[in-house]
Design goal:
The chain has six helices and eleven strands. α2 packs parallel to α4. Strands 3-2-1-4-5-7-10 form a seven-stranded parallel sheet, sandwiched between helices. β8, α5 and β9 form a beta-alpha-beta unit. By secondary structure, the chain is α/β, with parallel strands linked by helices.
Length: about 240
């Protein structure tokens, strides 16, 4: 299987480690990979995809949006700039487009799932909503809305609790990287066929479950999935396991 990864990063590197029989071509701004099944092409994809991949056939395309800043222009470049190119040049490839639960940021203190309309609270979220709308017309596409990613190197829950980065109560919408990799593997193997999946831990918890200093009703939404919520499929079912 031949896979093109646009926006190659930590998730893609770990996925390639697990799938040594697959051939990966990864596009990233800088850096390399020590894996024998990965070829890295260094470029800023928002300026255009490299010419050496345009004539190649891929079984899958994995698109991880990367931004070089936090303003609206950076989000437009990272999320929207190459969608037409991907659609027009790789029509035979199946695709996984990575999105974000940020599209639910306009909701508070309710449970949302894939049937809940997107409701962003800022311009960046509106751009992600537009991104999802555009790629919904691509054939053979799955959109993965990732919750906050937790890895051995980065655990935002620990950071928030230890540093008291805020005191308002929130639902903790996270997922451990191992469970993201498993979900992606299921999609490639045809075990998950839904077009939109919220990639989120199946057990819902709030910051106040760990520290009463987080006061009041949650100011965000609890993100759930109606398509991928079987606890037996998750190694890390709850934030409590890795807090």
């Amino acid at each position: 299987m031949k896979i093109l990864v646009i926006g190659y990063g930590e998730i893609a590197e770990e996925f390639a480690k697990l799938n040594k029989d697959f051939e990966f071509i990864g596009i990233k701004r800088s850096g390399s990979s020590d894996l024998s099944n990965v070829e890295i092409i260094n470029c800023d994809y928002s300026l255009g995809l490299p010419s050496q991949i345009m004539g190649l056939a891929f079984d899958w395309i994995l698109f991880f949006p990367k931004t070089d800043g936090n303003d609206a222009k950076a989000y437009k470049n990272g999320y929207l700039s190459q969608l037409d190119t991907i659609r027009d040049n790789f029509s035979s490839a199946k695709r996984i487009f990575i999105s974000s639960t940020r599209v639910y940021s306009g909701y508070s203190n309710i449970i949302v799932n894939e049937d809940t309309p997107a409701k962003p609270s800022d311009e960046q979220g509106e751009i992600i909503k537009e991104y999802e709308q555009e790629i919904s017309s691509h054939k053979g596409t799955t959109v993965l809305r990732l919750g906050g990613l937790i890895t051995t190197k980065s655990n935002f829950v620990q950071l928030v609790i230890q540093k008291r980065l805020f005191t308002s109560n929130k639902y903790i919408n996270g997922i451990y990287i191992t469970d993201v990799l498993n979900l992606m593997g299921n999609i490639l193997q045809g075990q998950t066929s839904e077009k939109l999946v919220n990639a989120i831990m199946p057990v819902t918890m709030k910051y106040s479950d760990f520290d009463p200093a987080f006061e009041g009703e949650p100011i965000n939404a609890a993100v759930k999935s109606i398509h991928y919520n079987d606890t037996s499929k998750f190694i890390y079912k709850s934030i409590e396991q890795i807090k």
